[in-house]
Each structure stands twice: as C-alpha cells, then as structure tokens.
C-alpha cells in the first residue's frame, strides 16, 4: 500500500511517501523553490516523492495533515467571541479563507490533478488532524513498541498540546490543551518581542538564552502563565494579540517588561538576553512538568516527542538528564513538515488498520536521509554549467583530502547522498569545521553563514566516543539533545572571564572543543552512526585518527534566511557566495582558490593586506601609460619604471596627486572637502561582515547587482564612499577595488575590511577624471553615486567606461531629472519644517548625526546634476555600451527581476517619460536615484 502525505498552505509545506508502512521519501518544498519556509502547495516535493518511488504504481491514498474546516471553525469562533476586537484582522483573513482555505479539499484535488499520470486520484483524498499527524510522525517511526507521545506547538485546529499513548499499531490521544493556551505561542511571543521572526527565529531565542539570566521568569509565571503541577497551563490573554491582531503581543505586554519590542535591526542588549533566558526557563519548566505527569499517569517507560516545541533541544536535554523516561525519541522533522509524514502513517495504521514493524535498534526514519540524491553525472553537469574547476577522486582520497583541509582550519561544504528531511543538516548537506579552533565559531557565523555572532554550532561526534567528551551516553542522531561538555574537557576560566556578562562571554575558550561549546558549556549533540551514514562516519573517524578528536563542527549548508541546499547547483552557488574554502560533492572536490584563474600581469606585481595583487595589477600611476606597472611597498606604491613612490595617506592607499579638475570653480575640490566633513551619509557602522551581507541580501537592488556581476569577476566601484557596497560585492569570489576622493569615507571602508579580514577587497584614493587604472582591466565598472557630483557627468562616464573590458558590465546611478524635483522643493521647506519631512530621516535613520549628514548630502551638496533615461542611453551609444536594463524598470517593459544584467527593451520615448513622471510618487521620496546597466561592446 502506497500513501502520500502532504502539509501545505500555512508553514513549511512538505510531502512524504510511505509504502507498506516504510518511509520511502520525504522533502520540504522550500528546498526546491529556494523560498524559506515555503507554504505553497508542495508540487516539487510531491514530484520528487513520486519519482523516488521508482515505478508508476498508483497511490492508495493522499492524506492532508490537518482538517481545514476545524481550523476555520476555531478562527471564526475566536473572532466571534472577542468581537468587535480584531475586526481589521478578521476583515483581512476572511476573504482568503472564503476564497481558498475553506474549500481546501477542492483546491487540493485540483492541485493533485497534474499528478494523475503518476496514479494520484481525487477519490483517495483523506484528512488527518494536526496533532494526530504530529503524534503519528513521532510514534510510528520510533524504535519503541509502546510509548507515551507528547506533541507541543503553536496551534493546529484547536489543539496546542496533546498526550497520546502508542501501543503497537494503535495510537490514541488521551488529553489536550486547546487554543488560545499554547506553549508554542508563548515562546513565539518572546521570539517576536526580542526582534526575531515568528515561526523561524525561535531557535535564535534558544541560542541567545545562555547569555542572559532568567530574572524575568517569576514575572512570567506570575503574570503571563498559570502553570499547574501536572504541567497544564493557561495564558492570560490580556497580554497577547495573536488571537485577533497583527502582532503576537500588545502594549500591556511591553509595559509589563518595561520596554517596547525590539526591531529586527536593533542591537541586542543584556535586557534581551535576560528575556530570552527567562522565556527558556519557563518553557523548560512546563515541559518537565508535563513529562513528569505523563510518566506518572501512563506508566510508560519511553517517550516520543513532536511539534515545534520538540525542536527545543535544550528542554529535551533536560528531560533526558532528569531520567524521567528510560528512552526519548524525537521526530527529526518535528514541525509542520513532519506532519506530512505523520498524516501518511496515521492513514496507514489507523485508517487502513495495517500492522506496524518496529526497528528496535535504530528507527524507521533512515537517519532522516529521505530527500533526493544526485549522481556524479548530475554533479558534473551542474558544475560545468557554472564553469567550475573541479577534480574527481576515489572515496579514500576524498576523505583524506577533506580531513587534511579540516585539520588545517579550512571550512568545507559537504554534499553527499540523500538530503535530510527536517531543519537539521546531519552530514549530507553540511558545512564542516574543526571544533578545536578557537576562531571557527566566529568565522562560520560571520563569514560563512552570515548570521548573528552569538549562534552556537553543533558537534557531530562518533557514537562510540560521545561519552568521552560529553556528559551524555545515548543516541542523538538528529541533533535534538543538548548536553554539557565533560568537566575534564573544560578549560578553567579566570576570575576576570567569570565576571563577564552577556555577549562579552562569546569569544572565551571554554574547552578543548571551543567551536561547539556554548557559553554555558552545553552542546547540541549529533551522534554519528555507521549504519545510517557510512561516509560521514568514515570522515569523522578519519579526523579522529589524524587529530585525536572524534568530533566535527556540523552546521547546515546554507546562509542566513535561505533553505538548506538541495542540488549540486545550489551547493556551488552557496560555496561561491561565502568564504568557504572547499566543496566536496560526492567524489568531486573543489577548492575556492582554484575557481578563479586571473590573467597574470605583464610585469610582476605584489600586494599586501590593504590591497590584493589581483587589483594592484589593474593600477598604473596617475597620467601614465597603461604599460607602466606599480607594485605595493610598505606604506605606498612604487612606479617600477621610474622608481617614484606614492605614499599612503592616513593609512589609505592613494594614487591621488592633485584634485584640480581644470574648472574655474574646481568642483572636484569642493566635493572632496564636503565629503571629508560628511563622510558617511548612509553608513550603518556595521560591526561585522555577516551583518553587512544580511543587510545587502534584504536589499532588492543589492541582490540584483550581485546577481548581475556573478562570480570570479574583477570589479571597480567609482565613488565607493564608505565601502559598504565594495565589501559586499566581494562575495562570489569577486575582487573589488573601491575608489573615492574622500579619505574620511575610505578609512571607514578600510576599517571594515581589516576588521573582517576581507582579502579580495581593496580601497584607493583617486580622481575619477584622472583614474590611475588601466583601460579595459575590469569585468565590471560600477558608479552609483558620484557621476552627478562631478563637473561633467558625461565626460566622467566616458572616463570610467574605458576601464571596462570589452563585454564587461557598466552600471551607473544618477539623480533623475523629474524624480529629483520634490527633493529640491523639500530643501526649501526644511529650514521651516525640520528634517523629518524627509522620508528616510523619518522612517530609517535613528542616529541624529547620521540624519544630519543625510540631510546635508541630499539637500545641501555643493554640486549636483540631474539626468534622464534617454540621456544616459545616449551616453551608452556614444561610448559603445549596449543597453541592458533600468531600475526601477521602464513602464511596459518586463522587469529584469533580481538580475541587472538581464537584457530588456529601452522602451519608447513616451514610455520613458511616463516612467519618470511615475517616479515622482515612488523613488522621489528617497532622493530620485535611478540605475542603468549596459555592456561594453567596443574599445
């Protein structure tokens, strides 16, 4: 009997296929679409599951993981009970429910029709209940004949927590806690309050908790939640807004803790860490009480867990340490994705009453390796399409070279076999590092994952060695248990270190394996078993043989806000977009240093920490011929032909000998002086590269720009200012030279480069009208903020275009002739009405100093010019540049999406005029800057 389970439409859609009670395949839709937590119908995941079955045998049933009518009933009843409160959210939710969700059966049937050829029929559509699906996903694949089953999450139809008893092939829910009283929603409320994204950032709250003290735990127990001895509870709804509002919490909640909810980009303080610690402490208290009462009431010796709260591995670890149950098994896809699997299993065993087989040695999840695998032919095809440089090795050499790289402090992307099902990477789609390295945790967070520096990493440890390193001796194959590092492996802290609080604890070496030891000496353990992942076990064993350490740092193969990679193409893109050193795809090995083979300069050049040799090779002395080579020396450049030295200025490489542009008003000198005094109108003071990348990835323009540039390119940014864009564009293995007149701005960019060890970026002071750069030496020339501050933008454009190679990309940004008019009008009113009439000051800038500089830059710049789309297109024709795209896009022309290099039409004159008039109501509020991209076709 073959059954397909589906979860969809709310959070983390997925599909799972079982045959005769055995799990054949399971995957989340996000892995295929590359949209984090994709809630759409899991068309791609279903397609994969049917393909994985290996034949065209028809399905006996398709099962949806919950009952939409019951969920609609809960929603309608809640609004009716609390009316008129929540009318706005009711009015917003009802049209969607009435048009789509209320008729989900018909919607599902229509969506399934496209799989009719694969044996999917409408007649076989069944519906499970949300928490029954969770319970089935936990019990039926578990290694237990009989067990208690606890499910805890936000909310299903009505249920938020349930206790079930599983015996053989039977499963019955005994008790429930119902909405609005929800442990998951309580935790999500604190996730929201601390500035993280609900249904995504709960694990961040858990990782932040050890940096704080639970000083608000009593307040939470006294005011927010009434916890009974048996773990059942009620929440005081007067503090929450999730029933009928748009927020998790209300003003009363904020008043209780004495501070407003943190905005996502605001700095984390000790207050937020203490809030996290308090929320975690209360959650653990509830979970422990529920588990104790469950053992007492049921007499069961084994426990199964599922639901989103079951992903709280710290709470799981405490349940294990207390010894409440003999054994604990947690469904690796404990969230809604796992509901797809549970729905299929519930139908098989409960609806069709089919018997259950139990694998007492392991479980029925096959190590959670249930996603797609890719053979060497597919790996080669994906890499060849990307122009990658790679080698194929036999399995022994693959393991040996990977171990050598890891032991030398390299970061390795590890892509093997079938993809994991669930939120954890378990050695199939993993990024690996050496746990002994005191810098590995910081490097992985800030230069690989681009995420918050406080986030911990998990140790993947050989099962046979786990008790030698951790206060833990049990199976934890799914990274869902936290335990402490053994005391004899810890490092004694000094008195000064013990006195530290909060984030200051972060970089202290606490044990022999500092990269996986959290600030409270805990670690989220993955035990590695040869029966489920032989190659990963062999890799960790080989690392132990070489170093004596049977542990690797294991984190998911993705970057912040992206799903774990699925295909070889996904893996290569992630590899190139990070500072990862090595990528292993099956038996194929890639080194980052080999991905780019730049043409060598005619004469030898050298670089230093300030500017890499690949960029020095593109430079020349100001006013000299392109054949004149420079070399870096201590504190400057030297002309190899004449011996003349060009010293750095204030520590910044400089090839600027004068700033006279030949004009009577000397515009260049005036602009230089202005930016020396106002060096950072948009500078956010990024403390780390990860924050800069995260900010860039949130910007549609930055993403489109990086996609247009691609990989392995040499990029020139003219007018780089504080260097934020130059530093960001060094992703994808690009080399970026940022040039500017302003030393004050360049020093900020250089400081960020040095603090984050960005080795493919360089900064240099020079004049755009006399560029000390060789012609045709860059793959990309970019200037989005300086041409309109020159005395002759057209001539400046011609000067920078010559620096692009034939076929190279040219991207310029200018003030628009129409969209800039409101800015001029606002400048006349600011004196009377104040700077808050400016949209950016009002909505985006909180620092008064930055606001002042922004206002000066936008409204009181000593020189600026305005331009039109057709004018820039004329410049392109004059200089042999083929038009590609405009952002914002021209009306009537299909947008280039997230790639500025995609070819589009320039539109008609009328379309261009209409576009620029429409900008009065859009880009005008932010200054009226538009961007045009082209490709150089001739010298």
Q: Can you walk me through this structure?
A:
The protein has 939 residues and is an alpha/beta fold. It folds into 4 domains: 2-141 and 333-358, 2-Layer Sandwich (Nucleotidyltransferase, domain 5), CATH 3.30.420.40; 176-330, Nucleotidyltransferase, domain 5, CATH 3.30.420.40; 376-593, Carbamoyltransferase, C-terminal domain (DHBP synthase, Alpha-Beta Complex); 613-936, Vaccinia Virus protein VP39 (Rossmann fold), CATH 3.40.50. 35% of the residues lie in helices and 18% in strands. The protein is built from 32 helices and 31 strands. It has a 9-stranded mixed beta sheet, with helices on both faces. Helix 12 (313-322) links the parallel strand 11 (302-306) and strand 12. Helix 9 crosses helix 11. The longest helix has 29 residues, at 270-298. The protein is globular and about 90 Å long. The termini are far apart. 50% of the residues are buried. Residues 599-604 have low confidence and may be disordered.
Short description, anyone?
With 939 residues, the chain is an alpha/beta fold. It folds into four domains: 2-141 and 333-358, Nucleotidyltransferase, domain 5 (2-Layer Sandwich), CATH 3.30.420; 176-330, 2-Layer Sandwich (Nucleotidyltransferase, domain 5); 376-593, Carbamoyltransferase, C-terminal domain (DHBP synthase); 613-936, Rossmann fold (3-Layer(aba) Sandwich), CATH 3.40.50. It contains 32 helices and 31 strands.
């Amino acid at each position: 009997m073959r059954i397909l389970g589906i979860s969809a439409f709310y959070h983390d859609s997925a599909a799972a296929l079982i045959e005769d009670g055995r799990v054949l395949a399971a995957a989340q839709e996000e892995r295929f679409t590359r949209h984090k937590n994709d809630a759409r119908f899991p068309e791609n995941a279903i397609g994969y599951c049917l393909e994985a079955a290996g034949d065209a045998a028809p399905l006996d049933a398709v099962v949806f993981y919950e009952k939409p009518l019951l969920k609609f009933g809960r929603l309608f009843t809640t609004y009716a009970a609390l009316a008129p409160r929540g009318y706005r959210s009711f009015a917003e939710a009802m049209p969607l429910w009435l048009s789509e969700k209320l008729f989900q059966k018909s919607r599902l049937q229509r969506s399934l029709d496209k799989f009719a050829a694969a044996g999917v029929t409408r007649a076989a559509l069944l519906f499970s209940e949300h928490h029954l699906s969770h319970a089935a996903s936990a019990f039926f694949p578990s290694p237990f004949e009989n067990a208690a089953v606890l499910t805890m999450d936000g909310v299903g139809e009505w249920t938020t927590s349930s206790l079930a008893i599983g015996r053989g092939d039977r499963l019955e829910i005994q008790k429930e806690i119902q909405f609005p009283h929800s442990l998951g929603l309580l935790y999500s409320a604190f996730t929201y309050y601390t500035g993280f994204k609900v249904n995504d950032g709960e694990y961040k709250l858990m990782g932040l908790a050890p940096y704080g003290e639970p000083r608000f735990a009593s307040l939470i127990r006294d005011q927010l939640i009434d916890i009974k001895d048996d773990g059942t509870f009620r929440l005081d709804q007067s503090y929450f807004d999730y029933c009928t509002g748009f927020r998790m919490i209300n003003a009363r909640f904020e008043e209780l803790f004495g501070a407003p909810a943190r905005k996502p980009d605001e700095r984390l303080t000790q207050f937020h860490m203490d809030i996290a610690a308090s929320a975690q402490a209360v959650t653990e208290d509830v979970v422990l009480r529920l588990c104790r009462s469950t053992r007492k009431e049921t007499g069961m010796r084994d426990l199964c867990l599922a639901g989103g709260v079951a992903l709280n591995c710290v709470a799981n670890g405490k349940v294990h340490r207390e010894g409440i149950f003999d054994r604990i098994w947690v469904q690796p896809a404990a969230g809604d994705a796992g509901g797809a699997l549970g729905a299929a299993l519930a139908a098989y065993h409960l609806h069709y009453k089919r018997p259950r087989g139990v694998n007492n040695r392991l479980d029925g999840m096959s190590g959670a390796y249930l996603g797609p695998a890719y053979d060497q032919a597919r790996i080669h095809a994906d890499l060849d399409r990307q122009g990658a440089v790679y080698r194929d090795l036999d399995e022994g050499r693959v393991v040996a070279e990977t171990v050598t790289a890891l032991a030398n402090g390299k970061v390795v992307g590890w892509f093997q076999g079938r993809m994991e099902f669930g939120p954890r990477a378990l050695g199939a789609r993993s990024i690996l590092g050496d746990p002994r390295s005191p810098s590995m945790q910081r490097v992985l967070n800030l230069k690989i994952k681009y995420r918050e520096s406080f986030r911990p990493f998990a140790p993947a440890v050989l099962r046979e060695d786990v008790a030698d390193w951790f206060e833990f001796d049990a199976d934890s194959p799914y990274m869902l248990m936290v335990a402490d590092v053994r005391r004899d492996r810890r490092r004694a802290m000094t008195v000064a270190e013990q006195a530290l609080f909060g984030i200051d604890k972060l970089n202290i070496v606490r044990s022999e394996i500092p990269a996986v030891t959290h600030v409270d000496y805990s670690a989220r353990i993955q035990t590695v078993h040869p029966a489920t992942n032989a190659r990963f076990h062999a890799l960790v064993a080989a690392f132990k043989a070489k170093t004596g350490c049977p542990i690797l740092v294991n984190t998911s193969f993705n970057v912040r806000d992206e799903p774990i990679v699925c295909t070889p193409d996904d893996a290569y893109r992630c590899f190139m977009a990070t500072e990862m050193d090595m990528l292993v795809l099956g038996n194929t090995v890639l080194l980052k240093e080999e991905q780019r083979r730049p043409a060598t300069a005619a004469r030898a050049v050298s670089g230093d920490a300030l500017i890499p040799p690949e960029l020095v090779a593109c430079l020349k002395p100001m006013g000299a011929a392109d054949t004149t080579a420079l070399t870096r020396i201590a504190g400057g450049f030297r002309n190899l032909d004449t011996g003349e030295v060009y010293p750095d200025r204030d520590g910044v490489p400089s090839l600027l000998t004068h700033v006279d542009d030949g004009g009577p008003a000397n515009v260049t000198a005036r602009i230089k002086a202005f930016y020396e005094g106002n060096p950072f109108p948009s500078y956010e003071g990024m403390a780390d590269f990860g924050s800069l990348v995260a900010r860039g990835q949130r910007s549609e323009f930055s993403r489109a720009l990086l996609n247009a540039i691609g990989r392995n390119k040499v990029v020139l940014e003219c007018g780089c200012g504080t260097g934020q864009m130059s530093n960001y564009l060094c992703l994808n293995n690009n080399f970026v030279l940022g040039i500017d007149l302003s030393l004050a701005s360049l020093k900020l960019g250089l400081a960020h480069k040095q603090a984050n060890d960005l080795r493919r970026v360089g900064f240099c002071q020079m004049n755009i009208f006399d560029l000390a750069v060789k012609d045709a030496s860059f793959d990309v020339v970019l200037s989005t903020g300086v041409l309109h501050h020159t005395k002759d933008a057209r001539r400046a454009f011609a000067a920078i275009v010559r620096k692009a190679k034939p076929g190279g990309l040219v991207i310029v940004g200018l003030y628009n002739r129409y969209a800039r008019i409101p800015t001029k009008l606002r400048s006349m009113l600011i004196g009377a009405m104040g700077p808050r009439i400016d949209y950016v000051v009002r909505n985006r800038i909180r620092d008064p100093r930055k606001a002042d500089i922004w206002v000066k830059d936008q409204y009181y710049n000593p020189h600026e010019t305005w331009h039109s789309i057709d004018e820039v297109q004329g410049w392109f024709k004059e200089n042999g540049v083929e038009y590609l795209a405009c952002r914002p896009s021209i009306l009537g022309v299909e947008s280039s999406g997230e790639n500025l290099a995609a070819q589009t039409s320039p539109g008609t004159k009328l379309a261009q005029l209409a576009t620029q008039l429409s900008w009065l109501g859009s880009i005008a509020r932010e200054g009226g800057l538009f961007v045009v991209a082209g490709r150089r076709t001739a010298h």
